[in-house]
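cache lookup: miss for this entity combination. No prior model stored, computing from scratch. Input as submitted by user K.M.:
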Amino acid sequence: MQNDRLIRALRREPVDRTPVWMMRQAGRYLPEYRATRSRAGDFLSLCRTPELACEVTLQPLARFELDAAILFSDILTVPDAMGLGLYFADGEGPRFERPVRDAAAIRRLAVPDPAAELGYVIDAVQLIRKELDGSVPLIGFAGSPWTVATYMVEGAGSKNFAHIKGLLYDAPADLHRLLDTVARATVAYLNAQIAAGVQVVMLFDTWGGVLTPRAYRDFSLQYMQRIVAELVAGPDGSRVPSILFTKGGGPWLEDMAETGCDALGVDWTVNLDEARRRVGHRVALQGNLDPAVLYAAHRVIRAEVARTLESFGHGSGHVFNLGHGIHPGVDPAHAAAMIDAVRELSPPYHAT
Amino acid sequence: MQNDRLIRALRREPVDRTPVWMMRQAGRYLPEYRATRSRAGDFLSLCRTPELACEVTLQPLARFELDAAILFSDILTVPDAMGLGLYFADGEGPRFERPVRDAAAIRRLAVPDPAAELGYVIDAVQLIRKELDGSVPLIGFAGSPWTVATYMVEGAGSKNFAHIKGLLYDAPADLHRLLDTVARATVAYLNAQIAAGVQVVMLFDTWGGVLTPRAYRDFSLQYMQRIVAELVAGPDGSRVPSILFTKGGGPWLEDMAETGCDALGVDWTVNLDEARRRVGHRVALQGNLDPAVLYAAHRVIRAEVARTLESFGHGSGHVFNLGHGIHPGVDPAHAAAMIDAVRELSPPYHAT
C-alpha cells in the first residue's frame, strides 16, 4: 500500500502526519456525485450497481488528498437482503415496506448469504480495490445491530423510537433475538467485505446515543463487541482494524474501548484530550470536527482544525475526521480547506 | 402552600417522599387536552387564551397526584413577541415568517415588554395561581437563549443547524449580540412570570447538546447563567428556585452546577448516581426516566421507577421526572402507573 497512514494510525504506529478522511465523503455535497446519482436514477440503484458505487467511492479521492476511501453503500442493505423491502420516499429518509414488529416476524428472519444476496456490494469492493490499485486503504462498513434494528422495527427514521423501545422495555427477549440475527448477518457481511478486499471496517451506531447507559451496553455495545470478536483476517492474513462509532456515545467511551476494537469514532460533543485521557492507550481516536465548521470561512476552518489537532496532542493514534457525516450543503472547497489544514498543520505532532 | 415537596426537594430540604411531575404533562397524550385544543382551534390560540391555557395546565392535576403544575405555554412566545411571526404548519413543528439571518436583522430586534406583548402569559399565570389555590407550586419557564435562537435563525426546527452554526463559526459577535438580546428578553419575561406568581422557573435548553464543549459554555451556558443571576425574588420576598435542563448535557453537568441554579434536569443518558457524584451537594437533580418506558407494561414502569429512585439513592434533592417530555402516544394510565410508583416506592429513601 502506497499510503498506509490510516492503518498505521489505527494501530498507534508512528506516522509522518495525521491521516484524514470524511464520513460521507462520497456524497451529495459533490456535484459529480449528484451527476452520477442522477444517471443511476435513484440512490438504491446507485448502491446496487457496482460500477457506479465504485465511481462515486473514488470521486472524493480525485478531488482531495484523502488517506482512505470508504465503500459507497448504505447500512440498510443488510435488512433489505433480509426481505424487508427498502425504499426511499422522495425527500424523506429510508423506509421499509415490511417492518418487523412482533416475535413472529422476528423469528421468520434469516441471515442472508452475502455472496448471493449482497453480491453487488462484494462486487463493488473488488472493483474499488482494483481501481485504487494500492494507493490508499479501503474502509468497509455496516450499521450496528441496534441502529439497523431501529429502522427494521420503526420502518423508517424515528424521533421517539416508540416501537423499538416498546420492544426493549416490554419484550427484551424478542429484541435480543432480533439483534442476534442482525449481528450474525453483519458478521457474515463484514467478513465477506474483508474477503473481497476491505482493509478496515467501521461500525456505525447512529442511534446508540438514544439509550440509557444500561440499555446501551445490553442492546447496542454487546452486539458490536460480538461482531468485532468474529471478524476474520484479511486475505493476506493481516488483522483488519475496526472502528466503532456511536453518535452521542461520549459518556461511554471507556466501555467502547473495552470491546477489542482498534479505534473509536468521537463526535464533537467530547474534546479529544478528554477522550484520550479516558481511553488511555487502548484504542485510537477518530474525529471530531463539528461538520458545521465547514460552513465557515477558510480561516475559521483552519483554526478549528488546529484546535482539534492540539486537543489530541502529540503522537500517533488520531485519525482526523468530522464528528459526523459531511452535510450535503457544504461547498467542496471548504472540505478541501479542512484537508489541506490537516496536511499542513499535523506534522509537528508526529515529529520525534 | 399545601404541598411544598417540590420546593423543598429543589432546596435539598427533607421531604416525606420524592416529588414528581412530568415535562409536557399538559399535552397531547391527554384526551381532555386534545378536546380543549380542538375547541381553541389551534395550538397558538390555546397559548394565547389565558382561560384555556389555565384549563390545560390544570388537566393533569385533576387526573394524577402530581406535586407541581407547569404553565402551559411555548418557548417561542418570546421571539414571537419580538415580531418574528410564529406559526405552526400542519403536522410540522414551529416556524417563523421572518427568521433572523444577518447582523442587520439582529440589530433590529428589541426586547419586548412582557406586560404589553406577553400579557396573555402573565394573565394565564395569575389565573392558574388562583385556581391552584395554594395546592401545589406553579413552575414557569422559558427556552434557553441558544435554543430559542436556533429557531429564530433557522426559521424552523433543524437537523444540521446550518444557519446558526454558520453564524457561530463565521460571525460569533453577531450571534453573541442575538443571544444577549434574547437573554435580556428572557430575564424580563421570567421576572414578569415571577411577579405574577410562578414559584419555580425552568430553562429548557433543548439544543445545547448539539454544540462542542467550548461552544456550549460560550453560546448556551453563559447566557443561562446570566438569566439565573438576574432572577428576582417572589412577591413574598422568597427566592425562586431555578432548574436548568440541557438535553444531551450529561457531559457538562459540573459546569451547569456552577451557574448558581438550584437544580439540573438530567436526561436518561446519564445515571443519577453518576450525576449526583459529579455535582455533589451543589444542586438538586430532576429526572430521568426514559419517556419510552411509558410505552411498557405497568410492572416494567414500576421496575424502572424503582431503578431510578435507587440510582439517586437516599436523601432529599431528587425531583422525579421523565428525561424529556412525555411522548404524545402514551396511554395516560401508564403515566398514572409511574406517578403511583414514585409515591409508593420513594418514602424509604427519605426515612430518617
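stored under new cache key. Residues 172-196 of chain A form the longest helix (25 residues).
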